[in-house]
Amino acid sequence: MYVLIFLLSGIVFLTACSEENDESLSVPSNVPAAERPKGPPNYGGAVDTITCDGISGWVWNAANPFEKIMVDVYVDGKIAETVPAANYRGDLRNLGGTSEYGFGIAAPGALKDGQPHSVGAKVSGSSFDIKVWEKIQPSIVCKPK
Q1: Residue from 48, 61, 54, 10 nearest 134 by CA
Q2: d(C-alpha 16, C-alpha 66), whole Å
Q3: How many other C-beta atoms lie within 10 A of the C-beta of residue 14?
């Protein structure tokens, strides 16, 4: 860090500057180069299972395939549970990184009332919707137990 002093029209301005760039401030220096972010988040993924037993899917960040991502799973627009996307998915090993991009929860009891419910997911702390896979319905009706 260094201090700069400016004199402008008889007024002294004092400012502190750092030689570090933004990336070095958010990523520890001991993180290998291959695991450092390569730009802003570039999320991809899908909710690929919605059943009366559970809800699951996957998500990853192409700009940082080693990022540990938290997922908010929603039922009827309300967060049912927040879980890590950390389950191994062999079908995703060609993406690179860890292949540990899966997430899942047991179906919440609120689903099991014989009424239709909508289901969705987002990357926690962001506005990125994890899309429901086009071959399944984003809503479900489960019989009461």
Answers
A1: 48
A2: 33
A3: 8
Instruction: Specify the range with the lowest mean pLDDT, choosing from 27-31, 46-50, 101-105.
Output: 27-31
23 pLDDT more than 50: no
| Domains along the sequence of the chain with CATH | 2-34 (no CATH), 38-141 (2.60.40)
> Residue holding tokens 């400012």?
15
SS3 of residue 72 by DSSP:
strand
Segment 42-49 shows an average pLDDT of 96
Helix (H) or strand (E) holding 50: strand 43-50
What's the first-to-final CA gap in the chain, in angstroms? 63
Within 10 A of 92 (CB to CB), how many other CB atoms are there?
19
* pTM score: 0.73
> How far is Cα of residue 49 from the mean position of the Cα atoms in its chain?
18
What band does 31 get if pLDDT is binned at 50, 70 and 90? low
Answer for the pair 141, 117: CB distance below 8 angstroms, yes or no. yes
Alpha-carbon distances, residue 105 vs 38, 90, 119, 126 (angstroms): 30, 19, 12, 20
